[in-house]
Write a structure and sequence with these properties.
The chain has about 210 residues and is of the alpha/beta class. The protein has one domain: Rossmann fold. The chain contains seven helices and six strands, in the order E-H-H-E-H-E-H-H-H-E-H-E-E. Strands 3-2-4-1-5-6 form a six-stranded mixed β-sheet. The longest helix is centred in the C-terminal third of the chain and has 21 residues. The chain is globular, with a radius of gyration of 17 Å. It starts with 6 loop residues before the first strand and ends with a strand.
């Protein structure tokens, strides 16, 4: 028997209506912008161009991630793929910042404080989650559900959010609380991982245009 593929592709949703307006989104269930729809389709086309197909998909309970997944799968010709949705893969909850314009937040609390809330590992925005909190829910879900599928040879596509995916990338890329703040994940750009049998990364490719 040939060595299983152990393929894991992470895909951040396309631009949302609130990304476009520069608003803190978090768990607010906003749709994709027209550009975001195109980004999701383009992600599917890039995956197809690289000859990638999937056995199972995972996404959050938020529409922008679900729609990104659906649009990408149409381009792949895989619209009947088994799909699992879970709150564990939701974006960070931004608490009291949800719905606020990021520039207005900077005027109110200062550049440094807002940067800490957005980019630090363990500083929570008021009423919300830090990246550390997001890791605490996303990582167990990954270990219990997604990783076993990958290690069993299933080709897995995960369509989620900037911070829930940063939580997974932190583990996959062996980033630390000190190095994770510099890690950005672009909207609609697939991250293609192939894992070793011990769950560490054999290779990583970013499918930019």
């Amino acid at each position: 028997m040939s060595d299983p593929d152990r393929l894991l592709v992470l895909l951040r949703h396309g631009e949302s209506e609130w990304n476009l307006k520069n608003l803190f989104t978090g768990w607010t269930d906003v749709d994709l912008s027209p550009k975001g729809v195109e980004e999701a389709k383009e992600a599917g086309r890039r995956l197809k161009a690289h000859g990638l197909t999937f056995d199972v998909a995972y996404t959050s309970v938020l529409i922008r991630a679900q729609k990104t997944l659906a649009l990408a799968l149409v381009e792949l010709g895989q619209t009947n793929l088994p799909e699992f949705r879970d709150q564990a893969l939701n974006e960070r909850h931004y608490g009291d910042l949800c719905g606020l314009n990021k520039d207005d937040a900077r005027k109110k609390w200062g550049e440094e404080q807002v940067h800490l809330w957005r980019r630090s590992y363990d500083v929570q925005p008021p009423g919300g989650e830090s990246l550390k909190d997001t890791v605490a829910r996303a990582l167990p879900y990954y270990c219990q559900n997604i990783l076993p599928d990958v290690l069993n040879g299933k080709r897995v596509l995960v369509a989620a959010h900037g911070n829930s995916l940063r939580a997974l990338v932190m583990v996959l890329d062996r980033l630390t609380p000190k190095t994770i703040p510099g890690m950005e994940i672009a909207t609609g750009v697939p991250l293609v991982y192939r894992l070793k049998a011990d769950s560490t990364v054999a290779s990583k490719e970013i499918l930019t245009a």
